[in-house]
Amino acid sequence: MLMEKVLLATDFSDSARKLQHCVGEFKELGLKEVVLTHVVDIQSSAMGSTVLQKHNQEVLEEEKKRLSELGLEVKVRVELGYPPEKIVGIAREENVSLILVGSHGKGFLRELLLGSTAFDIIRSSDIPVYVEKYRYREGEVAEPVCSNRLESVLVPVDFSSCSEKAVEKVLGLGKKLEKVTLVAVIESSEDPEELEKTKKEYEFSLEEIARRFKAMEINVVSRVEVGLASEKIMEVADEVGTTMIVLSTRGAGRLQRLFLGSTADAVARRSRYPTLLIPCRKPFRS
Asked: What domains are defined for the chain?
């Protein structure tokens, strides 16, 4: 199950601590085990790294008690290393089904950009990554969205084998889903006739996917939009009041600057909504 065992990464920031208070909500989605993780960055902690590791272990042991009271099985791991790489490595070792991170980080600009650690985790992970988002109000600190994530799920589809993986993950959530919106975006065309033909093809293909949700008695609607994919996805998210976006990530080649497809990159970085990213390739290993 997608959310049965998760790795929760924390950097002890105020936002990360608040994210830990959302974990109880994942119990309703099948959460049973949590690997509570912090990585001491040896590049910045220098000589004090082992002392810091011991201190942070003690801090997380206290947090473990609180999470255990929710009926969760909790394991604490505090490691030394480069945080993104180490976090993904721990996730593999622990065989988690999901990595849970917040979008906050050094240099974080409101909800518009991912922190560098969160982005590097997404870029390299071959395990699904859930990125919680934060709401900001003037004069107030960040608050995690902490919503009923399955109330209105948005699934962008491009009919590739990668987007099929995202669809399968969402179908796996079953009747816990309240509403699903499928959206396919067509790049604008100068030929109106060709555009209309493509729209009909997309509508037909989306309906084929929608039937799989209807067979499970899940409320599903389909949308075909025209324009820049990332912008249209976020526009639809606003219109339908989405509580979570689920989309696949993919990329090719060691020299590609971003291992995310450009659409997934833009949505993960700029979306105001919690985003679940389903990897569609194994990460490059040197």
From this structure: 5-144 (3.40.50.620), 153-270 (3.40.50.620)
